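Hi V.,

Quick status before I head out on leave. The structure for the redesign project is tokenized and pasted below; the design run finished overnight.
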């Protein structure tokens, strides 16, 4: 190539670089120009679905585009998370993940097709979700002390519903069962939405579930709640004792739900999404609905992408030694 050819090629490259530098931020600035898909890794009607719908309903108003919820079920939420990790990193596919999909999955799935930290950009924490010990309404034990005695005496007969290996309901009942020294039969569902239906119908015995899924059923008297696994009672369920009050202080569990984007999603897009999520969490109607269902709304300092990144890192470190020996 002669001097002219070389300088023309050089000029084209420089022009292409300049154009992409100008166009990329402009795209991020215009974002979003079409509807956004929010993957929910469990069945509709369960806690992650409910939280995602409450918050994204408001985020859509802020962003000026609809946010379409897509429930992608299977393998304790890891099928959906793998799909979200592979999606284009343009801000149009997001996932509402949680303590299971984005922390506990790491030690439980040796061949996990994604890594919560390496495959995703944290966007923002949506809600803390205390765990309750629940049972079908005609399960014989009347309180937590009787429950402990009963499940120990009937360990081969009782079963526990959950939303798949690595889900919050699975991991938190694993913790409970290890405290009690029992290994009941696990009954997997595609989410605790359908698992709750089975509990209400008396088809399964007990379940450890996030409060958001449990409050309406406890208040309707369709299931029993033995205790909430947090240090304090929850204002949405003032009559449900803490595990410490009910005699099992060793069982403490609270989950969380949060938004993640595929790795490499541009920082201005993450910032827009985070700002919309934060605005939703400050909205009176959104707050009322989340609080009625017992969620813990994150404090402002805990709502940043960086804070979510730190949470995920800490949670992987916390769950790995607990879950790895259990296999
Ligand atoms: C759900 O939405 O079904 C739950 O978050 C499942 C779980 O992790 O227990």
């Amino acid at each position: 190539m002669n001097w002219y050819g070389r300088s023309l090629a050089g000029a084209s490259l420089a022009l292409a670089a300049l154009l992409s530098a100008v166009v990329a931020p402009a795209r991020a600035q215009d974002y979003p120009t079409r509807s956004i898909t929010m993957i929910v890794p469990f069945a509709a009607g369960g806690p992650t679905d409910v939280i995602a719908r409450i918050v994204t309903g408001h985020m859509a108003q802020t962003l000026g585009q609809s946010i379409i919820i897509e429930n992608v079920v299977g393998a304790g939420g890891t099928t959906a998370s793998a799909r979200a990790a592979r999606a284009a990193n343009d801000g149009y596919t997001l996932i509402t993940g949680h303590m299971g999909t984005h922390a506990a999955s790491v030690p439980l799935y040796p061949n996990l097709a994604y890594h919560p930290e390496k495959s995703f950009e944290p966007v923002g924490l949506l809600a803390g979700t205390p765990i309750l010990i629940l049972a079908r309404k005609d399960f014989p034990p009347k309180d937590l002390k009787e429950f402990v005695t009963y499940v120990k005496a009937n360990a081969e007969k009782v079963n526990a519903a959950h939303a798949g290996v690595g889900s919050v309901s699975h991991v938190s009942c694993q913790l409970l069962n290890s405290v009690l020294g029992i290994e009941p039969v696990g009954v997997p569902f595609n989410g605790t939405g359908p698992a709750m239906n089975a509990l209400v119908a008396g088809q399964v015995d007990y379940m450890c579930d996030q409060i958001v899924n449990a409050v309406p059923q406890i208040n309707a008297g369709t299931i029993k709640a033995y205790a909430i696994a947090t240090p304090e009672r929850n204002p949405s369920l003032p009559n449900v004792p803490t595990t410490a009050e009910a005699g099992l202080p060793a069982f403490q569990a609270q989950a969380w739900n949060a938004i993640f984007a595929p790795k490499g999603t541009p920082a201005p897009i993450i910032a827009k999404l985070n700002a919309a999520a934060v605005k939703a969490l400050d909205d009176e109607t959104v707050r009322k609905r989340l609080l009625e269902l017992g969620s813990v709304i994150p404090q402002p300092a805990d709502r940043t992408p960086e804070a979510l990144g730190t949470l995920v890192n800490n949670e992987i470190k916390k769950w790995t030694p607990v879950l790895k020996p259990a296999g």
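Above is the designed sequence. The two ends are 62 Å apart (CA to CA).

G. will cover questions while I'm gone.

Best,
W.
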